[in-house]
Each structure stands twice: as C-alpha cells, then as structure tokens.
C-alpha cells in the first residue's frame, strides 16, 4: 500500500512539474510573440515618420496629443500646403457655431493640402468637448492646449492662425492672428487665396 501511495505521489509530482514547464514554455512563447509584435509596431511607426524638408525652420514648435492620444508637432505643417489652427472653447457660442462650417471647409479642401486643427485650453471639459464634436460633426484633429500656444492668446476665442508648409505664420491684414468667428464664404475666400 505504501508503495502504491508512493507511486501515486511520484506520478502526481511528475505531472505537476510537466504542467509547470509547459506553462513556462507557453509563457515564454507568448512573451516572444509579444516582443515580435511590439517590434513590428515600432517598425510601422518608423515607416510613417514624416520626412521634413531640409531647411524646415518653423516660426514655432509644439508637441501635444489629439483626443485619441496621437502625438502632433510642428512637422504637421510640412505635410500640408496650409494649416489653420483654430483656438476655441466648448463654452464659446461663436466657436461652436462656426465649427460645422469649418468642418465643411476642411472636407472640401483637404485633398488640396488644407488641414484644420482645433485647440482648446480649458481643463476638465472633455465631456463638453465630446458633446460639441458629436453635435457639430467635426472630424478634423482636436488637440490639447500646451504652453507653446501661449503666444496666440488674443484674449478672445475663437482665434485662428494660418501656417504655410514651411511652418511660417501667414499675416492676414497685417496681423498674425484672426480674432473672431467667420462664415463659410469668408473662410473659403481666405483659404483659397493661400492655397494657390
């Protein structure tokens, strides 16, 4: 009887050791697969790195993220003929009112190298921002404010700036900032005159 119990215990112990080594093997294989997948992701990110033209010397630099966590910086200017940065807030009536027209402008001219970027500064209003984006149908990137945008604080919203593909701010009627909202026709005239 003792021999039988001893055999059963030995067999059970061998089975446990076998399970543990199989689990360790599976865990190691899983980690290796993860590492390969991770390196593939890194490679795909490297492949999409923006080639900035030599001599690219923008008037200002910034680094921030959009609502999905995608990083944006000044190299976005080099990817487009014309970029509009529209500083707005979800509590600003004129800001929200012009957003559907800005979206229409973006959709109509994106294939010609036009990009709109929205930037809001108020903290803790993400649910309000989400509501505005849903109600206005905005699909252009909405970025989180950083101190690098402080120089464009006019004291009013909306305030917009236009930036060319070399990263230079375009003056409109002698000013680098366009303060106040506009209608579709007004924005379209301004945008088309700088798209060339």
Report on this model:
The chain is α/β, with parallel strands linked by helices. It is 44% helix and 16% strand. The protein has four helices and eight strands; from the N terminus they run H-E-E-E-H-E-H-E-E-E-E-H. The protein has helices at 2-47, 93-109, 126-136, 184-195; strands at residues 63-65, 71-73, 82-87, 114-120, 142-144, 159-164, 169-170, 178-179. The protein is globular and about 40 Å long.
Q: Which terms summarize this structure?
A:
196 residues
Give a short synopsis of this structure.
By secondary structure, this protein is α/β, with parallel strands linked by helices.
Number of E-state strands: 8
Q: Could you tell me the mean pLDDT?
A: 82
Query: Could you tell me the radius of gyration in angstroms?
Result: 27 Å
CATH topology of the largest domain: Glutaredoxin
| Strand/helix succession | HEEEHEHEEEEH
Point out poorly predicted stretches.
2-48
CATH superfamily of the largest domain: Glutaredoxin
CATH class of the largest domain: Alpha Beta
Number of structurally distinct domains: 2
Structural class: alpha/beta
